[in-house]
UniProtKB/TrEMBL annotation:
Chief localisation class: cytoplasm
Record-given protein name: Protein GrpE
UniProt-annotated location(s): Cytoplasm
Any GO CC annotation of this UniProt entry: cytoplasm
Function field: Participates actively in the response to hyperosmotic and heat shock by preventing the aggregation of stress-denatured proteins, in association with DnaK and GrpE. It is the nucleotide exchange factor for DnaK and may function as a thermosensor. Unfolded proteins bind initially to DnaJ; upon interaction with the DnaJ-bound protein, DnaK hydrolyzes its bound ATP, resulting in the formation of a stable complex. GrpE releases ADP from DnaK; ATP binding to DnaK triggers the release of the substrate protein, thus completing the reaction cycle.
Keywords (A to Z) from UniProt: Chaperone, Coiled coil, Cytoplasm, Stress response
Assembly: Homodimer.
Amino acid sequence: MSDFNKDEYLNDLPDMDNLSGQTAPSGTGPAADDAAAGAPESAAADTAADSAQAEGSATAANAEDAAADDTLTPLGQAKKEAAEYLEALQRERAEFINFRNRAQKEQDRFRQHGIIDVLTALLPALDDIDRIREHSEMDDSFKAVSAKIDKAFEKFGVEKFGEKGEDFDPTKHDAILHKPDPTAEKETVDTVVEAGYHIGDRVIRAARVVVASPQG
C-alpha cells in the first residue's frame, strides 16, 4: 500500500471559484416549471374577472334603470311609455314615406320607358305626317287625326322640337349638312329634315337638321 500524499490530494481537488461559476441554466428546475404552468391559469383568471366585471356593470345599469322606473309616478310612467310609442310611430312613418317615394320613382320610370317605346315605334309614321303637312295639302279628316296624335303625346309629356332659324345645339340637333351662309352670324337651323322629341330633359331623338354656318 502506497503512502498517502497530502499535497497531491489537495492539488487534485477543484477550485471553489470554478465551482461557484457553474450555475444552473435559467428557466429550468421545479420553480421555473411551476411558473410556466401557472401562466395560463393566471390569464384565464384575468379573463374570467373581466367578464364578471362587465356582467356586473350591465346588471348594475339595468338595476339603475329599474330603480328609476320605480321612482316614477303613474303619470310619469304613462308619459314615458307615450314618448316611446311616439318615437316608434315616427320611425315607422319615416320608413313608410321613404318606401312610398321609392315606389313612386320606380313607377314614373317604368311609365316613361313605356311612353318612349311607343313613341319610338311610331316615329316613322310621325315623320310621314310631318312631310305630308309640309309638302301637300291635308284634308280635314287627316288634319283631325294628326292633331289628336299630337295632343296624345303632349298629354304624356312628349314635346316636339326643331324649328328653322333656331340656334344650333349639338345636344339636341343632329347636323346632317353644314351649308355656308354669308348672312349668318352664328350656326342656325336652316332646314329641319326630321323633328326631334324629348320628355323633360331626356332627348328621345335628336332633330336631324341642315345647319347654316358663317363663312370664314
